Amino acid sequence: MVSDDAELRARVKALESLLVERGLIGTDTVDQIVEVYESEIGPLLGAQVVARAWVDEEFRERLLADATAACWELDIGGLQGEKLVAVENTDTVHHVVVCTLCSCYPWPVLGIPPNWYKSPEYRARMVAEPRRVLAEDFGLPLGEDVEIRVQDSSAEVRYFTLPQRPAGTEDWDEERLAGIVTRESMVGVAVL
Amino acid sequence: MDGPHDLGGAPGFGPVRFDPDEPLFDHDWQRKVFGLTMATSTIGLYNRDENRHARERMPAADYRATGYFEQWLVAMETNLTELGVLDAATLRARVEEFLAAPDEEVRGKAQPDLFELFRDTLEFGASLDRPVPTPPRYAVGDHVRAVSSAKPGHTRLPAYVRGHLGVVRRVDPAFVLPDTNAHHEGEHPEHTYNVAFNAHDLWEKGDHEVRVDVWESYLEPAD
């Protein structure tokens, strides 16, 4: 089943053309759907949520209590984000998210998952040796005094982390703050 | 079931190849596989659990040798032929035609209404939470044990917690049970729980905590 690209391209076209012939999808369907994920949905949305939580303490509390509802306040939610939970990183607790069984990920907040998140290496190792994976593969050495909590997204909840606000940003506005929030920081493989 | 997808703690894997600037798709065929999977799910040709289960049923060597989007492609081919939407021989014949004429494009009609349907799914989601008449069996702080049996068929209990003791950290709503939903045996919703396990118990090393989300029937009382 190791296939070269020519074979894979032909298999995909064959599937699409038969579904189009059966009238189940249109020739425009696939591109239209993918364009939504290429242009509208991505980690910039999650960055807005994080920045709002940093500047608005009441929003932060609502986010940690019910992330689904809090994100909807910013019009963020929907497919693969029907039940969201935000976990907060602090000086003493660091959360990191993985899906060992497949690739569950909070799409409305972070977009579709990157290759490294879906990779067998990440899925196999993050639950067993997170301290080492974070230090060696992501360049994030955490102190012995920081407790690591690995969240395996194995049911219907989709998780993202609320990273700590960096020092020196006290007088920044929400938009500028959103500009420094990375996808990696919201999965928990980076700090800001 | 035990399957090649159940990777938590699996030995022998090297470094994570982390690239913060990677593109959304490496190849155009992967982009198409993503769109086709979303399209066929949107029109309800199969459900999410069925889709996952088709990937999990891949022979282990094939699963490991294929990339992520090729696994998605295999799942579509498996489901669409098993469900009788497409005929396997017809599908293979069409693959040969495109192999012989690689520049040939897919032709046919557009269906703008279908995209509107997808837009609705995208905005409102496709939540699998369902009301159940029974209260949750467990409460926050309860000590529980993950069941040890590996049932045949689809399940969402990772092998690495089976038989281990944990503590309930959060009680979540009831959701459709993947174990039956994947096999067209009904939704049978159950409460779900966020359960914390101690890494040292699971792996005999490590000082971290692993939290796993599980359906109620995946748990039994600790004593």
Layout: helices, strands, pairs:
The complex is a heterodimer of chains A (192) and B (223).
Chain A: H1 5-21, H2 29-39, H3 43-55, H4 57-65, H5 67-73, E1 84-88, E2 93-98, H6 107-110, H7 115-118, H8 120-125, H9 130-138, E3 147-152, E4 158-162, H10 174-178, H11 183-187
Parallel strand pairs in A: 1-4, 2-3
Helix pairs in contact in A: 3-4, 4-5
Chain B: H1 28-42, H2 48-56, H3 60-65, H4 68-82, H5 88-100, H6 112-124, E1 143-146, E2 165-175, H7 178-181, E3 190-198, H8 199-203, E4 209-215, E5 219-221
Antiparallel strand pairs in B: 1-2, 1-5, 2-3, 3-4
Helix pairs in contact in B: 1-4, 2-4
Folded structure, characterized:
Chain B: This is Nitrile hydratase subunit beta. Chain B: It holds the Pfam family NHase_beta_C. Chain B: Residues 1-107 form the Nitrile hydratase beta subunit-like N-terminal domain. The complex is a heterodimer of chains A (192) and B (223). Chain A has 192 residues and is mainly alpha-helical. Chain A has two domains: 5-38, no CATH class; 44-187, Nitrile hydratase alpha /Thiocyanate hydrolase gamma (Nitrile Hydratase, Chain A, Alpha-Beta Complex), CATH 3.90.330.10. Chain A is 47% helix and 11% strand. Chain A contains eleven helices and four strands, in the order H-H-H-H-H-E-E-H-H-H-H-E-E-H-H. In chain A, the strands form two sheets. Chain A has a two-stranded parallel sheet. A two-stranded parallel sheet of chain A has the order 2-3. In chain A, helix 3 (43-55) crosses helix 4 (57-65). The longest helix of chain A is centred in the N-terminal third of the chain and has 17 residues, at 5-21. The termini of chain A are far apart. In chain A, 54% of the residues are buried. The model of chain A has no long low-confidence stretch (mean pLDDT 96). With 223 residues, chain B is of the alpha+beta class. Chain B has two domains: 28-124, Cyclin A, domain 1 (Orthogonal Bundle); 143-221, SH3 type barrels (Roll), CATH 2.30.30.50. Chain B is built from eight helices and five strands, in the order H-H-H-H-H-H-E-E-H-E-H-E-E. Chain B has helices at 28-42, 48-56, 60-65, 68-82, 88-100, 112-124, 178-181, 199-203; strands at 143-146, 165-175, 190-198, 209-215, 219-221. In chain B, helix 1 packs parallel to helix 4 (68-82). The model of chain B has no long low-confidence stretch (mean pLDDT 95). Chains A and B meet through helix 1, helix 2, helix 7, helix 8 and helix 9 of A and helix 1, helix 3, helix 4, helix 5 and helix 6 of B. Strand 3 of chain A pairs parallel with strand 4 (209-215) of chain B, so a sheet runs across the interface.
